[in-house]
Amino acid sequence: MNDPRRGRFQRYIERFGLTERQILDQVDTTFGEPLLIVAAGSVIAGFGNDTSDLDIYAVVEDDVASTLPLMSYPNGARVDGITCGARQLTDRHREMTASSWPPEEVGPGDIGTRRKAIDVVTRYGLGLPLSGTGPWPAWQRRLEAEAGEWIADWHTVEAYRLHAAAGALLAHKPLVAGIRAGEALLAALERHAAVRGEPYFKGKWLGEKLERLGDRKALAAYEQAIVPPLSAAEVPAYLARVTDALPAYLGEADTGSWRLCLRPATGTSWESFGQERLVSRWGLRAAVVPQKSEAAEPGTWTYSLSEPWDPDVEALFCEDMLWLGVQRAA
C-alpha cells in the first residue's frame, strides 16, 4: 500500500542516515521485549519541521510506571521512546469503546481524563506500525478505524461546551467570552478536519490540517477564531458570527439529549454570611448569593443547550466557582 506515513518515516530517517533497524534499536527493553512498535507524532502526521523529533511508541507485557519519553540521539536525530504496558493500554482502549462522549454523568476531572486517554490511545492507532507480534497488529488496525470517531466526538462536545461558556460570560466578562467563542470555533474546525481525514489530536496543527485539505472557507474561519476581539464592544457581534459559523462544521450531531452540567469547581465552598451565602474558592476569591437563591447551597445544575441559566448560577460560573461539562440525559 502507498501509505504516506511510511514515506514520511523514510524521509526522516534517511535525512539522518539511519535505517529502520537502527530506529527499532532505540526502543528500551528494560520492561520486556516490545509486542508492538509504532512511529507517531508530528513527523508521521506530516506536520513536522527540521527540529521535530520522532516519537516511537512501544507496548510491552509488564506494567510500566511512567510514560515519560526516553530520548536518544542517533546520528543527531532526536527519537523519543514511550513505553506502555499491554494491560494498561488495553484497559484504556476498553474504556473508550465501552463509553460514549458525552457520557451520562460528567464531573470535574472527566474532561482531562478523556482528553489524555484519546491522546495516548490514538497515537498507537494513527501512527505507522513498525513491528508487532501476536494479536497486536490486528489491534492496531482496529484502533486506527476507531480513532477518528472518538476524536470527532470529543471536538463536537467541546465546541458546544465552550460556546455555552461564551454565552454565559458575555454579560459578565465579555473579553473572556470572546476568547471562549474563538475556542468553540476552533473545536468545531478540529471536528471538521477529523471527519475529512485529518484526525491528528494536536490543536497546534489545525491551520496546517486545513491547508492540506485545501479548505479555504475553513481557513478563513480559523483566522477569525484565533483573533478574538480586543474590546468589549466588539464581542457581541463576534459571538454572533461564531454562532452562525458553527453549524457548518459540526455536522448533524444529535444534541437533543445533551445537557449542560454545572458543579462546584474543586476548592469551592459555601458559608453563611449574615442574610446571604458567601461562596469562595481556595480562600482566594469570593462571591455572595442570597440565602434563598437556587445557588445558595452546593449542588448540580443542569440545563438543555438552549435553556437560560439561573442568574446566580451563571454569576458563580463567571466567577470561576462552577465547572461546566456536557452530559447525556439518561
TrEMBL record:
Top-level taxon: Bacteria
Protein name (Swiss-Prot/TrEMBL): Nucleotidyltransferase domain-containing protein
